[in-house]
Amino acid sequence: MSSQKKFCPVPFDQQPLNEYKSLKKSPLFSFSATDFKTFVNRLILIFVGIITLGLSVTIFSLSLSKLSVHIIVYNVLCALFSIEVLLVRLYLGWSYVLKRLASASIFYEESGWYDGQLWIKSADILTQDRLVGVYQVEPLVVRIRSLLILISSIVVLLFIFLFLFS
């Protein structure tokens, strides 16, 4: 149990620090909390896997002679779009936890959506939550946002390439 239990009426799973810990342990979000090199390597591995799958399906459904640059670019776009969707999900999850960690008051549900309460954090808990938010979660959000902007730019450039050369 959390040491905050005696001070905090918020259910254990809805406490921002516990939300952060559970998100960090979840399979989808845990790899984004690793160092930057490992995170990018796993994204590249996912990208290569999607490209391989897409090109395999394309080659088996069409003959190899019908494979063109446009089809390859479409496969790359599909893989990049998949990475974008993953990054958006990571961004939304981490930014939600960051918002709850930085907030001075927490909205929580005791037993259902109809009986929500608002709890004002004590100074100690607020300080602890904000430190975790600033030093643990905010760098992840910034990193994911930067990668999302980079990949979105690449997608736009590929669309421009397809538009100009089709």
From TrEMBL:
Keywords: Chloroplast, Membrane, Plastid, Transmembrane, Transmembrane helix. One of its GO terms (cellular component) is plastid. Pfam families: CGLD27-like. InterPro entries: CGLD27-like (IPR009631). Coiled coil: none annotated. The chain crosses the membrane at residues 43-65, 71-92, 147-165. It is found in: Plastid. This is Ycf36. It comes from Liagoropsis maxima.
